């Protein structure tokens, strides 16, 4: 347990972390990778270049300092990060290395302000927080390894078939090369896909939501080609999958992970909201609800630029025809003439609260949403304005967690 004096010292650094948090984490990653370049094998290089990972870590450090006198308050965040760590293969031996360079970065950035007292308190706090991560992740590793069809680390899967779902999204059906059973998963969970491109020095790992119901002899991931319309360097794995992978290609997969999952014990209506490729976990939830919980009302709302970028519309429409408890609503920002003629959508422009209230039968429901961060911020704000309790609002980020509210650290 952290001493009372150390708690007071840590709390005194909160204002400093507000100002210098991202600077500290940027320097931390520089120190970490220059001294341990092998760890680049487990980090998302694009998130590093864009600064997303640095900001996410800064927010996590800030939250830890803010709640240092009640670390139980950040256990949900520890578990969320723990799922990601388990899917990436982060192990206990990594934590002393991370602690060494995080403390080094704090001291370097704060300079004379980083007194021996402050550094000692942070070293003590880091040890306790690291132990919490290690303990939770140990349970996750054991549970994953011991479950039926489970495995440790990464397992070879073969692409059985590829289905084009839109102009930029394709589904990949993955079967285990050893032909043995595969682990079940909860609707909303993801797998990590690890590749090493020819000539590349390091592996690349990305998480992709599973986009079908559990219990099939395959896993399905539906992947957007990130470089399709934009001149940028990210999307290394998605581009590889779209350009180089084909039927028969081997991919290395982690066992399913993630805590953004459908609460199947809740019998109230469900509202699933998605933007762009954010529909992938929603499709898994939708398929699960219609297949296993046919009495539970579902409202499925999806936003896309236009029909050409709208994946799985035919499948969702077919489900709506078969299941009267399911209603579907589409919002297109820039519908094409064909979209207008074929009436592919229900609203032109962007989702707003007034429209949500017009298509959702009642406020008393459980809400799940995923998509680009600006989309999620609008949905989150709309639901809050409507008075939806925070406990009924569930969302998932693709990549490092950000904030849907104005952030404290910058």
From TrEMBL:
Superkingdom: Bacteria
Binding site for FAD: 190, 206-209, 397-400
One annotated GO molecular function: oxygen carrier activity
Chain residue ranges for the region called Reductase: 149-410
Binding-site positions, NADP(+): 276-281
EC assignment: 1.14.12.17
GO BP: cellular response to nitrosative stress; nitric oxide catabolic process; response to toxic substance
Cofactor names: heme b; FAD
InterPro entries with a match to the protein in the record: Cbr1-like_FAD-bd_dom, FAD-bd_FR_type, Flavoprot_Pyr_Nucl_cyt_Rdtase, FNR_nucleotide-bd, Globin, Globin-like_sf, Globin/Proto, Hmp
UniProt record similarity statement: In the C-terminal section; belongs to the flavoprotein pyridine nucleotide cytochrome reductase family.
Name of protein: Flavohemoprotein
The encoding gene: hmp
């Amino acid at each position: 347990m952290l001493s009372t004096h150390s708690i007071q010292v840590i709390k005194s650094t909160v204002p400093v972390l507000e100002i210098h948090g991202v600077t500290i984490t940027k320097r931390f990653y520089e120190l970490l990778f220059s001294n341990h370049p092998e760890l680049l094998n487990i980090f998302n290089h694009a998130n590093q270049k864009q600064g997303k990972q640095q900001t996410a870590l800064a927010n996590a450090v800030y939250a830890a300092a803010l709640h240092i006198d009640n670390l139980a308050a950040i256990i949900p965040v520890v578990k969320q990060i723990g799922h990601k760590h388990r899917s990436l293969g982060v192990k206990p031996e990594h934590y002393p290395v991370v602690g060494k360079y995080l403390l080094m970065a704090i001291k370097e950035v704060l300079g004379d302000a980083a007194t021996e007292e402050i550094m000692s308190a942070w070293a003590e706090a880091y040890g306790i927080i690291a132990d919490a991560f290690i303990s939770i992740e140990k349970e996750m590793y054991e549970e994953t390894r011991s479950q039926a069809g489970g495995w440790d680390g990464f397992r070879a899967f073969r692409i059985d078939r590829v289905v084009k779902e839109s102009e930029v999204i394709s589904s990949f059906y993955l079967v285990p090369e050893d032909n043995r059973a595969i682990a079940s998963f909860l609707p909303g969970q993801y797998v990590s896909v690890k590749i090493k491109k020819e000539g590349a020095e390091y592996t690349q790992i990305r998480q992709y939501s599973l986009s079908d119901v559990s219990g099939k002899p395959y896993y399905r991931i539906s992947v957007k080609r990130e470089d399709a319309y934009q001149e940028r360097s990210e999307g290394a794995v998605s581009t590889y999958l779209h350009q180089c992978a084909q039927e028969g290609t081997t991919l290395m997969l982690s066992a399913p992970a993630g805590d953004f999952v459908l609460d199947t014990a809740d019998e109230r209506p469900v509202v699933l909201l998605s933007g762009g490729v954010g529909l992938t976990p929603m499709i898994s939830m939708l398929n699960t609800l219609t297949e296993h919980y046919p009495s539970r009302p579902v409202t499925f709302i999806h936003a896309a630029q236009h029909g050409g970028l709208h994946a799985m519309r035919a499948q969702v429409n077919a489900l709506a025809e078969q299941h009267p408890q399911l209603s579907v609503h589409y919002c297109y920002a820039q519908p094409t003439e064909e979209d207008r003629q074929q009436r592919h959508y229900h609203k032109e422009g962007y989702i707003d609260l007034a429209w949500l209230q017009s298509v959702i039968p009642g406020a008393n429901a459980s809400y799940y949403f995923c998509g680009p961060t600006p989309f999620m911020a609008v949905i989150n704000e709309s639901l809050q304005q409507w008075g939806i309790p925070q406990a009924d609002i569930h969302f998932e980020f693709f990549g490092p967690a950000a904030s849907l509210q104005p952030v404290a650290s910058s």
